[in-house]
From TrEMBL:
The protein's name in its UniProt record: ADP-ribosyl cyclase/cyclic ADP-ribose hydrolase
Pfam name, any one: DUF1883
Domain named TIR: residues: 121-254
Species name: Nocardioides daedukensis
GO molecular function, one term: NAD+ nucleosidase activity, cyclic ADP-ribose generating
């Protein structure tokens, strides 16, 4: 799809992207991960839509790396556009950072793996994912966490077969302080449909969740249809939370700084 794009870089919640157009066009505000999905021809989420008047004002809903994309929806011709970002209004108070849902996910001390498993190392965060979700979610999340000083073991094994992979994931979970599983339709399609994912995405210590599922292009109904118990677990979703925001929240929990989590 031919389009204009504007990299807004890191922006704070409450800022406003002001888009000026010379004709009607589609104007979409999206996270960096969703823009990557758009460029790759995958499904993506956005804020905005068809603009019939100019300028268009799009509030930025959360801290993170944002893009504005402008296109004519396949119609012939060209559109000219410019974008300015207005910062949050002076005196706008940041939300009180008390206990967010992710604070209920436990962080524990890792157990050194036996022999050469996982290179014999321990990590802050372990990420498991379907290979199709690598570029849209897993790699950007890994990079964002590393930028924040968090060590990450990224499971690069495609989720296609059972027991050996299950053992490898279990080793990664035990050897990491915090575990993440990226759930998506492709993850569900990888032959795991007869396996209760609770054993993969959670470990129960004193009734507390130790792993965090990330829902990628999934609705609660889809998760519930696959596993009702999974739908009740604390999770983040790429539909509403930018990858950079996820990384900041996860880093705050790993470092034991609950006040850093919205």
């Amino acid at each position: 799809m031919q389009h204009l794009y504007f990299d807004l870089k890191q922006q704070k919640k409450g800022a406003v992207a002001v888009v000026t157009l010379d004709k009607q066009a589609n104007v979409r505000l999206m996270t960096a991960s969703n823009y990557g999905a758009l460029k790759s021809g995958r499904r993506f989420s956005f804020h905005g839509g068809r603009a019939t008047k100019s300028p268009v004002r799009l509030p930025i809903p959360s801290n993170g790396h944002w893009f504005v994309v402008v296109d004519l929806g396949g119609l012939a011709g060209r559109v000219r556009a410019s974008v300015a970002v207005q910062p949050p209004p002076p005196g706008m108070l940041a939300p009180i950072r008390d206990r967010g849902p992710i604070n209920d996910v436990q962080v524990r001390e890792p157990i050194e793996p036996d022999g050469d498993a996982l290179g014999g190392q321990t990590w802050d965060v372990f990420i498991s994912h379907a290979s199709e979700d690598k570029e849209a979610v897993a790699v950007p999340l890994r990079n964002a966490l590393v930028d924040l000083g968090i060590s990450v073991w990224l499971d690069k094994t495609e989720l296609t077969i059972g027991d050996s992979l299950r053992r490898k994931i279990d080793q990664g979970i035990r050897s990491s302080r915090f575990g993440i599983v990226v759930l998506s339709e492709r993850f569900f399609d990888k032959g795991w449909t007869n396996h209760e994912l609770d054993g993969l995405v959670t470990r129960t210590v004193a009734g507390e969740q130790t792993l965090l599922p990330i829902w990628h292009n999934l609705t609660c109904d889809q998760v519930r249809a696959y596993s009702p118990s999974l739908a009740d677990k604390v999770a983040l979703t790429t539909d509403t939370v930018a990858i950079e925001d996820m990384a900041e929240q996860i880093a705050g929990v790993v470092r034991g700084r609950g006040e850093d989590v919205a």
